[in-house]
Specification:
The chain contains 16 helices and 12 strands. By secondary structure, it is an alpha/beta fold.
């Protein structure tokens, strides 16, 4: 998850596409299984209605397009100016421009054939001079979003609040040492929950990009974490008060923009939730690019959160393993997609979460078609991953090996350990009776070869 880039250069009204099609010449993306290698504006593997393990591909995958990268990204980076010039943009932060951008987005969603979208509050509507003006702006844009959702059938997977881009949040939002800033964040989330409920959002996400520290010299970490827990308790109370039934999600990330982020990885977030008694109200939204920034393998946080029943949704992207920052690239690696879908299948699906493409086209990919090609390629990659994972799971070669590996805990002393009734004395007696344990191969290379067979 990331903020959007600054506005591009202002344009004359005559230069702005304001009616008709925003993507002329692009129709609904078709499924064409026999397409050639250069036919990149068709789905070669993603067939929404195809049944895999008793459910349709669309049901398993629940694809979503993120608004911030796809419709607010300009291609700007710390070393270069914007490169992405979109015909619907006039270079202003006006409500008229926001409405035109939103109409372009829903045309894109419809032609791509995704069932969901996601947004930050500040992505879709400009901030005003006061809280009330900001909320009125958001209400005006949400009214249009509500209309466009009804017209297209595209639903809101989740909403979230941008609590990191504004200068007031430079020292954090819920963990800010200034209670005034804490209150600003709380007021913003209150409105965010309201509009997400209005749009039928199935989840609400918290990403704490500024919830951490740059130095411990000026930080009271226990107090900040206590404040963050108090913030989340307020969220739970208001969610229940307004009758919002969506799932609350926290998205881990180890660093960037903070030196250290409190929601470092999946295990850290699960521990935080359990420490503060919040685990019944939250699950995790996992972004694999964040996982690899934490020093883990691509699927690590997905597997870990799922193991504890805490995997709620996935921000489906990837990064460059050779770089130390969040590059938010489209996931095109079939082995990675297979491993993700293996976990999704094993936990019987992601609903009410989904696979949200928190990705941005490269700043050099400046054609409108590149927006489609990137999403199509990623959707095809996950479709292939789903098919691969279905075979891998149903044929049970890996799962049988894992079951055998832990079979000593199915009976005898091992079973007593898992039941919590074994003692240190029991273990001592077992060793005296059975002597030194045999070395048992972990068969890692065998497992890797099995996986490669399916990929």
């Amino acid at each position: 998850m990331s903020s959007f880039a600054p506005a591009s250069k202002k344009r004359k009204a005559s230069e702005v596409a304001d009616s008709g099609e925003f993507f002329p010449g692009v129709g609904k993306i078709p499924y064409k299984s026999d397409a050639g290698p250069t036919e990149t504006m068709v789905f070669k593997h993603y067939n929404a209605s195809e049944v895999v393990m008793g459910r349709s591909m669309s049901d398993w995958l629940r694809f979503s397009v993120c608004y911030w990268h796809t419709f607010r990204g300009t291609g700007a980076d710390p070393f270069g100016f914007p490169t992405l010039s979109r015909p619907w943009e006039d270079g202003t932060d006006s409500l008229d421009n926001a409405k035109r951008r939103l109409r372009a987005a829903f045309e894109f969603f419809s032609k791509l054939g995704v069932p969901f979208w996601t947004f930050h509050d500040r992505d879709i509507a400009p901030a005003g001079a006061t809280l009330d003006e900001t909320n009125r702006n958001l209400d005006e844009i949400v009214a249009l979003a509500e209309q466009l959702q009804k017209e297209t059938g595209v639903k809101l997977l989740w909403g979230t609040c941008n609590l990191f881009a504004h200068s007031r949040y430079m020292n954090g939002a819920s963990t800010n040492p200034d209670a005034h800033v804490f209150a600003c964040a709380a007021a913003q989330v209150k409105k965010g929950l309201e509009v997400t409920k209005r749009l039928g959002g199935e989840n609400f996400v918290f990403w704490g990009g500024r919830e951490g520290y740059h130095t411990l010299l000026n930080s009271d970490v226990r107090r900040e974490l206590d404040h963050m827990a108090a913030f989340f308790r307020m969220v739970i109370a208001y969610k229940e008060k307004i009758g919002f039934t969506g799932q609350l999600l926290i998205e881990p990330k180890p660093k960037e923009p903070s030196k250290h982020q409190y929601d470092y990885d999946a295990q850290t977030v699960v521990s935080f939730l359990k420490t503060y008694g919040l685990e019944d109200h939250f699950k995790l939204n996992i972004e694999p690019n964040h996982t690899t920034l934490a020093g883990h393998c691509y699927e690590h946080d997905i597997v870990m959160s799922s193991a504890y029943g805490m995997l709620g949704s996935i921000d489906s992207n990837t990064g460059s393993p050779d770089l130390g920052w969040d590059t938010d690239q489209f996931p095109m690696d079939i082995k990675n997609c297979t491993m993700v879908m293996k976990t999704v299948l094993e936990q019987k699906g992601l609903a009410p979460g989904g696979l949200n493409f928190d990705c941005k086209v490269r700043r050099e990919s400046s054609d409108l078609k590149d927006m489609f090609i990137a999403h199509i390629g990623a959707m095809d990659s996950f479709a292939r991953g789903l098919r691969n994972a279905a075979k891998l799971v149903s044929e049970k070669h890996l799962s049988s090996l894992v079951s055998t590996r832990y079979s000593s805990f199915d009976s005898g002393l091992g079973a007593k350990v898992e039941q919590g009734v074994a003692t240190l004395e029991d273990c001592e007696d077992y060793v005296r009776e059975n002597g030194e344990p045999a070395l048992i191969s972990g068969q890692q290379e065998h497992c890797e070869a099995i996986l490669n067979h399916y990929v």
